[in-house]
């Protein structure tokens, strides 16, 4: 049986773990695949950095030449970003290599073109590690649930933001203080923008929605709102409702009155009740709920990032792709037959928690309630607390569209007795 050759693009935290496991577990991998696998080259930016366990002769700074060699069976891409990753992956396809990637940003932006190029070349594109680290999620959606109808995917898919919000909830820390601790512990990058502004979670939501609903969904289709505006007051309000605040990725199928189906994909902070399993996902862990017609509710939970967990997902894909190579077959590719429309956020229906600073006067509550009613937003509960001539008024709505809530809040801001809108947060999980 011939040896399968693997090229590794990137040797950072994840790439180093991939190379280590390929070396230390070589015999087990060969037994599971049915043939030996050999690390044939490792492309890096700087060749002079020490890389224990990786022979110097495997290191190259010419990634383009490595993927063009012609004897490479599988390319593992863990460099991230759009370019040069996209060009390298396309070159790998052109030269007959299958690709295993952890690149959520690229897949969310250009997944359709990559799938098309892989199909044309008759090779595989696998990317379990692109979403939720070690948690098996892509393959269950793409294969295990292929015969079912998935209606909703709801979850925590970014460990950095979950750590920050959990710290704010458990210690009373403000956002900046919690971010500082996350950075010190290595959970947040020096530039945390991709995480805290929701870009990372939005890319993952796009990938999940595309697979779950058999439609093409890109990161641009995903409504995105990060956690930078979440305050200690928001966390306290959630506690008063026996809830916690989480950054959620939510992908849903909806059916109009005429039977037409569409989907929505969004990422934003939301209050969820303490009784919901996602409320107990602590620290940097991830968890995702999948709701399907026949299977019902499924929950996937585990470490969503880190070198070893992500490498586990990469190597799982490597084994699958290598087995396909030996069998002369390819695994499942893109499934976009449904071509469902992606609805804008204005059409999304959800519940809301609105906190207002108002004058402590008779009739203010009635005035506020009238504005909600005029815009078709019904009120579930109201809580008012006076303080030195002013009052805090907390309104929790029944389900309403984002557009209706936005119009309501805009009018509330014009009322003389409304001093300001302290916070607006969606309520999920009920």
Walk me through the structure.
Strand 11 (285-292) and strand 12 form a beta hairpin. Strands 7, 8, 9, 10, 11, 12, 13, 14, 15, 16, 17 and 18 form a twelve-stranded mixed sheet that branches. A six-stranded parallel sheet has the order 3-2-1-4-5-6, sandwiched between helices. It is built from 14 helices and 18 strands. Helices cover 36% and strands 27% of the residues. It has helices spanning 13-24, 26-33, 63-67, 85-94, 104-121, 138-144, 159-171, 175-184, 193-196, 199-213, 232-240, 307-327, 364-374, 402-412; strands spanning 4-9, 37-43, 59-60, 74-77, 98-101, 125-126, 150-156, 223-224, 243-255, 261-273, 285-292, 296-303, 341-342, 349-359, 379-387, 390-397, 400-401, 418-427. Helix 1 (13-24) packs across helix 12, helix 7 (159-171) crosses helix 8 (175-184) and helix 13 (364-374) packs antiparallel against helix 14. It is an enzyme of class 1 (oxidoreductase). This is Homoserine dehydrogenase. InterPro entries: ACT-like_dom_sf, ACT_dom, Asp/hSer_DH_NAD-bd, HDH, HDH_cat, HDH_CS, NAD(P)-bd_dom_sf.
């Amino acid at each position: 049986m011939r040896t399968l050759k693997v090229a590794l693009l990137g040797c950072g935290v994840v790439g180093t773990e991939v190379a280590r496991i390929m070396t230390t577990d070589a015999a087990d991998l060969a037994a599971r695949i049915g043939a030996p696998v050999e690390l044939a080259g490792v492309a890096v930016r700087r060749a002079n950095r020490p890389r224990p366990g990786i022979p110097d002769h495997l290191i190259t700074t010419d990634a383009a030449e490595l993927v063009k060699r012609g004897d490479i069976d599988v390319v593992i891409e863990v460099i991230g970003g759009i370019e040069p990753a996209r060009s390298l992956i396309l070159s790998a396809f052109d030269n007959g290599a299958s690709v295993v990637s952890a690149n959520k940003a690229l897949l969310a932006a250009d997944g359709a073109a990559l799938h098309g190029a892989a199909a044309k070349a008759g090779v595989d594109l696998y990317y379990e590690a692109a979403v939720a680290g070690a948690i098996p999620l892509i393959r269950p959606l793409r294969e295990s649930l292929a015969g079912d109808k998935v209606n909703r995917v709801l979850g925590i898919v970014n460990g950095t933001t979950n750590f920050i919000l959990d710290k704010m909830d458990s210690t009373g820390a403000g956002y900046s203080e919690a971010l500082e601790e996350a950075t010190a512990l290595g959970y947040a990058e020096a530039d945390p923008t991709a995480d805290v502004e929701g870009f990372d979670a939005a890319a993952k939501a796009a990938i999940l929605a595309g697979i779950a609903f058999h439609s093409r969904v890109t990161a641009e289709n995903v409504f995105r709102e990060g956690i930078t505006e979440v305050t200690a007051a928001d966390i306290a309000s959630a506690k008063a409702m026996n809830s916690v605040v989480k950054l959620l990725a939510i992908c849903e199928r909806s059916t109009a009155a005429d039977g037409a189906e569409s989907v929505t994909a969004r990422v934003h902070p939301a209050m969820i009740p303490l009784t919901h399993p996602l409320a107990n996902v602590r620290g940097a862990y991830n968890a995702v709920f999948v709701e399907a017609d026949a299977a019902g509710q499924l929950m996937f939970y585990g470490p969503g990032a880190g070198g070893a967990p992500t490498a586990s997902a990469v190597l799982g894909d490597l084994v699958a792709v290598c087995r396909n190579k030996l069998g002369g077959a390819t695994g499942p590719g893109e499934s976009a037959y449904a071509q469902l429309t992606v609805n804008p956020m204005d059409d999304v229906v959800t519940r809301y928690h609105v906190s207002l600073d108002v004058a402590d006067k008779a009739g203010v509550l009635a005035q506020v309630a009238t504005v909600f009613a005029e815009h078709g937003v019904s009120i579930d509960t109201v809580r008012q607390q006076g303080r030195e001539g002013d009052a805090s008024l907390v309104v929790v709505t029944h389900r309403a569209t984002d557009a209706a809530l936005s119009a309501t809040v805009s009018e509330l801001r014009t009322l003389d007795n409304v001093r300001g809108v302290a916070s607006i947060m969606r309520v999920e999980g009920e």
